[in-house]
Design a protein that fits this description.
The chain has 418 residues and is α/β, with parallel strands linked by helices. The strands form two sheets. An eight-stranded mixed sheet has the order 3-4-5-2-6-7-1-8, sandwiched between helices. A six-stranded mixed sheet has the order 13-12-9-10-11-14, with helices on both faces. Strand 9 and strand 10 form a beta hairpin. It is elongated. The protein starts with 6 loop residues before the first helix and ends in a 15-residue tail after the last helix.
Length: 418
């Protein structure tokens, strides 16, 4: 098997070798565009370095979750290691991987850094090195605890991520201080992945807009500002298709005092159309509705159609229970806000979802849904004009994106040529 790497990827693969100009660095940081090839080359280099420099030592492979480590890192690194003659044994229940080659064996622990409590998971372990994939998604306490565990002589730190805002702690403390921290910083672009086709590259460029385009295509640490869907206008709105749909679904964002938004989705020719909506603002109407009343409004929106599922906010427990009792098939929505926004933008720009003319409240919210500029180093949307936006995001993240086989765009990879 023949592997194809760009010059920047080869630099990542060899930076630690004796005689290289970067060999004296204590850490490496690979950030930049999605699908730019940084994850595979960094992961492969990490294992090659650890197996060349140490015997019977412990290392850590960290992601936002242990499942993301397996999906983003191990799924691409382990097949390559196999081609190079390495053997491994994974103990899934222990989140542990043993790698062997030429009489050398080392142990790699998998850790997830999803919240502040995750730092406790890595306390106490002694490490000879750590790789933190998607490091910008992890809390600072976890990252600093992982780095502090690397007390074996010769230990090095390995980081990869897609950019976030310029106020993010990792950007301020590591990217801006790379020289001070004796770290090698390499910024990746899509062209640094030599096996990524021009067609695929253009598709990713079309998938993002605004701040996300600058981050995930241009590889910049830039602030989110202005409208979330700043390219959306009424020229993108279409009349509902004629004739029977292939499938029907309803999405719902439930509120008691806040507005409730429901959208009726029909699939025509592989495209999901939001053909009709129900939107109720209790404050404006000066009357709250009960769960049973909202269930009746949902049935009226369905209009006797065969609804495959109702995709709803998982926090609306009482309303979901009423729907289940009345015989609706309820699916709890994927409620990750930022990834849902990216997936929705992708689906809109690719034409996989269409908002139809009867959906006046959704169209109005598209023109008012903004980033919260007071959020400091965090990306956060303003909690207003967001009810149809949330409901549409639920539907895309839970139904449309999985059907297209889309992931969360957090990790890049390098394809291999045989």
């Amino acid at each position: 098997m023949r592997f194809c790497f760009s010059e920047k990827q080869r630099r990542v693969l060899r930076w630690w070798r004796r005689g290289e100009e970067d060999a004296g660095k204590d850490a490496i940081i690979c950030d930049g565009a999605v699908r730019s090839g940084k994850t595979l080359c960094l992961g492969l280099s990490f294992v090659l370095w650890s197996m060349a420099r140490f015997r019977r030592q412990q290392f850590a492979l960290c992601g936002k979750t242990t499942e993301s480590v397996r999906r983003n890192l191990l799924s691409s690194v382990l097949p390559v290691l196999g081609e190079l003659g390495f053997q491994w044994e994974e103990k899934v229940s222990r989140n542990q991987l043993k790698v062997r080659c030429g009489g050398v064996e080392n142990t790699y622990f998998l850790f997830g850094g999803k919240d502040e409590g995750s730092a406790a998971l890595i306390q106490g372990v002694t490490l000879a090195g750590v790789l933190l994939d998607e490091v910008a998604l992890m809390p600072r306490s976890f990252v600093e605890q992982a780095c502090a565990r690397c007390s074996v002589t010769g230990a090095k730190l390995w980081f990869s991520c897609n950019p976030a805002g310029p106020g993010h702690w990792f950007y301020r403390e590591w990217i801006c201080k790379a020289q001070e921290r004796n770290a090698l910083h390499l910024r990746f672009l899509m062209e640094d992945n030599p096996t990524l086709s021009e067609e695929t590259r253009q598709r990713y460029e079309r998938a993002f807009q605004g701040a996300f385009y600058r981050r995930f295509v241009l590889g910049e640490w830039t602030a989110a500002e202005g409208l979330v869907y700043d390219y959306f206008d009424e020229s993108m709105v279409q009349p509902p298709p004629l004739g029977p749909a292939e499938r029907w679904m309803i999405s719902c964002d439930y509120g008691t005092v806040n507005p409730t938004s429901m959208g009726l989705w029909g699939k025509y020719g592989g495209v999901w159309y939001r053909v009709k909506e129900y939107y109720y603002d209790a404050r404006q109407a000066r009357r709250q509705q009960t769960d049973q009343e909202y269930a009746r409004r949902l049935a009226e929106l369905a209009g006797g159609r065969e609804i495959e599922a109702v995709v709803a906010d998982p926090s609306a427990a009482s309303f979901l229970e009423v729907l289940r009792r009345e015989g609706w098939n309820v699916r709890k929505a994927n409620n990750d806000v930022l990834s849902g926004i990216r997936l929705t933008a992708d689906a809109l720009k690719e034409g996989r979802i269409v908002i139809c003319t009867p959906c006046g409240d959704a169209i109005r919210e598209f023109g008012s849904y903004c980033w919260d500029l007071s959020a400091g180093d965090r990306d956060r949307v303003r909690k207003e004009f967001d009810h149809a936006m949330d409901e549409i995001r639920y539907f895309v993240a839970t139904v449309v994106a999985p059907e297209a086989g889309e992931d969360l765009f957090f990790a890049g990879y390098v394809e291999r040529r045989v």
